[in-house]
Amino acid sequence: GGADIECDVMVLGGGPGGYSAAFRAADLGQKVVIVERYSTLGGVCLNVGCIPSKALLHNAAVIDEVSHLAANGIKFGKPEVDIDLLRGYKEKVIGKLTGGLAGMAKARKVQIVRGNGRFIDPHHIEVSVTTGNGREESGEKTIVKFRNAIIAAGSRVVKLPFIPDDPRVVDSTGALELKAVPEKMLIIGGGIIGLEMGTVYSTLGARLDVVEMLDGLMQGADRDLVKVWQKWNAHRFDNIMLNTKTVAVEPKEDGVYVTFEGEQAPKEPQRYDLVLYATGRAPNGKLLGAENAGVAVTDRGFIPVDKQQRTNVPHIYAIGDIVGQPMLAHKGVHEGHVAAENCADHKAFFDARVIPGVAYTDPEVAWVGMTEDEAKKQGIKVEKSVFPWAASGRAIANGRDEGFTKLIFDPATHQVIGGGIVGPHAGDMIGEICLAIEMGCDAEDIAKTIHPHPTMGESIGMAAEVFEGSCTDLP
Ligand code: FAD
């Protein structure tokens, strides 16, 4: 059949994976089209994920920070929150970034085709043009013919079957809309997204309950890191329900009544003003007509790929949330670069040793590579070194010495294979440990690197020094 547009590389989805792939492919001389249903680039991350959540968390962190100054003789009044202005600030942040992306696309002559894309065969996609801010289809269709394709269609919120349609029951997107601050809020799912949003609402005045099916909050991070976060944040919570199932959510006139099951579960349904469900995200693999292109999709909607990000159809690649865990923007960006380079006939592979995880709560919790808990579970022998921030001049000066920095070493080589940090700005610091792991650094390399004093980042060098000092069997 005919095509309205022809290109070398068609990128389906304009999120962090998709735009990174598109820009790299364009930089390598490819004619690139992005198919995106929304009016802005940036996907979940920029529009309803990483960025708006951090815009709100920053404001919350400042409020929390100044409240601690009272003990030092500096008192502020209770903050007056103009929620419309705060929401406006968040929108402005998004606008700056999505505007920047549009400019970058234009500068690279990347064409954006606005609409819902659906593969019709291995070299054509049909785009049902969308209008306005949402997904309304205008009825108009555009056919794009491509030599290579990169599927970057991301993931969506999973709505559990017992979640009703009610304005007081929201997902992360609804919570980011910040309509009002409830008195009493329930977070279903004690993962990063739920706890970040809980931090914002609690600082603005909400009392929190959290319910988690597993035996701990913030799964994936070592328990000793999470413990520090939990102690610092105990004041926000009325009830932390672990090993507990949520079985019913019932909107009534005076509130939303939620029923729980489990040993720690309250017997009676509990009343909330706002319920946030943050129990996970599902990949969009089944919504793209992938079968028409011959692309294999798993039952759960993931698209399997090899180390070059190729699907089972060699000229069609997939990247980002749609290819698997961890569903993180920085993973998708790297996969996007690999796919784009392969489209331009380079030979690129995704071979990152580690992908860091960060909870941008207060304090932040960051980890990368091998964790202590995972090593224990797998029966892998590791050694560790912990530097408590109670011994860090800068952390003490900042009034924030609750945290610590931990390095995990291979006992045979003393190479660093993992690390964790809990404390303010942990997420900004974890990058050094990522680099150390990628470069195969051992404890001595890190210990002999001069870190600036006094900084919290210094704690990484100190942890390595402590480990070096304790070793008698230097390799
Ligand atoms: P997405 O960002 O999901 O983008 C996919 C795009 O494809 C969307 O724009 C969608 O409209 C479009 N699309 C899908 N199907 C079609 C179709 N058929 N036709 C046309 N267009 C289509 N990650 C981090 O690393 N750090 C964080 O701090 C962080 N915070 C988060 C906070 C929240 C509240 C949430 C929900 C997520 C957060 N994440 C964070 C995760 C991060 O947002 C995702 O990992 C990332 O956005 C995935 O990028 P992607 O390119 O794979 O897909």
From TrEMBL:
The active site is at residue 453. It catalyses: N(6)-[(R)-dihydrolipoyl]-L-lysyl-[protein] + NAD(+) = N(6)-[(R)-lipoyl]-L-lysyl-[protein] + NADH + H(+). It is an enzyme of class 1 (oxidoreductase). Its cofactor is FAD; (R)-lipoate. One of its GO terms (molecular function) is dihydrolipoyl dehydrogenase (NADH) activity. GO terms for biological process: 2-oxoglutarate metabolic process. Binds 1 FAD per subunit. Keywords: Disulfide bond, FAD, Flavoprotein, Lipoyl, NAD, Nucleotide-binding, Oxidoreductase, Redox-active center. Its EC number is 1.8.1.4. The keyword Disulfide bond applies. Transmembrane segments: none annotated. FAD binds at residues 54, 117, 321, 327-330. Disulfide bonds join 45-50. The active site is a redox-active disulfide bond. Belongs to the class-I pyridine nucleotide-disulfide oxidoreductase family. This is Dihydrolipoyl dehydrogenase. It comes from Aquitalea magnusonii.
